[in-house]
Amino acid sequence: MSVYLSFLVSSSPITPSMEPGNRLLIRGGRVVNADYSRTADVFVEDGVIRNVAPSLDVPEGTRVLDARGKLVIPGGIDPHTHMQIPFMGTRSIDDFYSGTRAAVAGGTTMILDFALPFNGESLLEAYRRWRGWADPKVCCDYSLHVGLTWWSSQVCEEMAELTKNHGVNSFKIFMAYKDFYMLRDSEMCAAVRQCKALGGLVMVHAENGDMVSEGVKEVLACGVTGPEGHTLSRPAELEAEATGRAVAIANQAGCPLYVVHVMSHEAADVVTAARNNGHIVFGEALAAGLGVDGTHCWNKDWRHAAAYVMSPPLRPDPRTPARLMDLLANDDLSLTATDNCTFTGEQKALGKDDFSKIPNGVNGLEDRLSIVWEKGVCSGKMDENRFVAVTSTTAAKIFNFYPRKGVIAVGSDADIVIWDPQMTRTISAKTHHHAVDFNIFEGMECHGVPLVTVAGGRVVYENGQLFVQPGAGKYIPRTCFGDFIYQRVRQMDIVRANQQVGVCRQPYSGPVVPVL
Ligand SMILES: C[C@@H](CNC(N)=O)C(=O)O
Ligand SMILES: [Zn+2]
Ligand SMILES: [Zn+2]
Ligand SMILES: [Zn+2]
């Protein structure tokens, strides 16, 4: 029986295990899934949701959490983070402990990070290095995408090894970061084909790296060295052009595509057109792009301006956040992430005399759910079910670990948040749980606050207090050929095969011009 069906018919009493400490009852809340809301109790035991139904009787010793008048939502899933990544001469300051601590404080109970090999480094080595960093530190479950930061037959083979034996089903290609992570089109074509053959998902950072490199030289030559130069050097058309190229390359191979951090409406329009043309393309919106705009890079205070430096840039058009939210609300953009990649003022100062040396990246992991609730639901653009879809469920489906996660249903992991939609909080670096000394949403008041976060059946955050254990989170392996994407791919392949048919004709028998 599917987990969803059992959610509907679940009335069977669960035989309690002996250990009383690990039972929770979340009483009387409005359970909100991506496709379904209803008032029900949620009974949890041994880290798994055992029952979802009104007025449940539960065993002695069960801890009861009162959720009456509140929402009960699946824990947030952030499909794009960079904890303690070595990058641009330093390492992002949020590590797998402080980052996942901040995550659960904001209602997120799983992150997907990126193992990014140095140019020429074995993908398996990079994967093992990231596992070594994450496993002892994570406070919630996590998984890893792997970067295709260079290309060779070895990379091709290691992709297969990672999918078969290490639970990786997603690979990120960078079209930017020339001479560092960037792949050429011919390499991208080969990488995309291999990813399709393995039943995986290609993720792409879509900016034209060659044009960005020229843009940087041009802006510096004009004497602009401040953070605003970063934005000036990589306009939205470089993001849109690369997005279109990635769509074409993926489509030629019949490979599904996931465009990370869509930061401009120009790029979002390319994603929308691709989806309307029937391509399997997903666009990811970031909390940063939904919550703030790029005018901050023109702030007089250097540290403030540098805090907003990321790639692709936050766009200076103040209408951008609302436009991206409109596209997210109507599923032209598919889901949200944060690309959390934080650097302190001292680290950002590596670029104090040259914007191209400012480590790229911003925060978002703790604030994503409140930002999306405030800008998406409070604004009337989306309902509570779409909110759950874009902060949790869709990521679980795309990366193929639904319904283990991303839904409140019998048999699913007990990653659950008691959410107060009326309560407000003011975001600040003074109160956030990140390691970084700046918050790009500083001072922003948001409706939508997590009261309790349950991760793996454990209360890890309650009314402002953290109860986290480093290393308590687990690595979540993911298999390939997930139905959510590959049912469609298989169908499309049948049609494509029928279209790739030559014409049966008599061979040409006329004269041929001799070679001169
Ligand atoms: C390296 C990483 C984070 N930095 C950024 N987005 O500016 C990325 O490009 O996704
Ligand atoms: Zn990127
Ligand atoms: Zn990233
Ligand atoms: Zn509000």
Describe the structure.
The chain is 33% helix and 22% strand. α8 (236-252) packs parallel to α9 (265-276). The protein has 516 residues and is α/β, with parallel strands linked by helices. The chain has helices at residues 3-9, 96-105, 123-134, 153-165, 185-197, 209-221, 228-233, 236-252, 265-276, 287-291, 302-307, 320-329, 345-348, 368-377, 384-398, 483-499; strands at residues 23-33, 36-45, 48-53, 63-66, 71-74, 76-81, 86-87, 90-91, 108-115, 141-147, 170-174, 201-205, 257-259, 281-286, 335-337, 416-426, 445-455, 458-462, 465-466. Bound molecules: (2S)-3-(carbamoylamino)-2-methylpropanoic acid and zinc ion (3 copies). One zinc ion binds at residues 80, 82, 339. Pfam families: Amidohydro_1. Keywords: Hydrolase, Metal-binding. Belongs to the metallo-dependent hydrolases superfamily. Hydantoinase/dihydropyrimidinase family.
Brief summary:
With 516 residues, the protein is of the alpha/beta class. Helix content is 33%, strand content 22%.
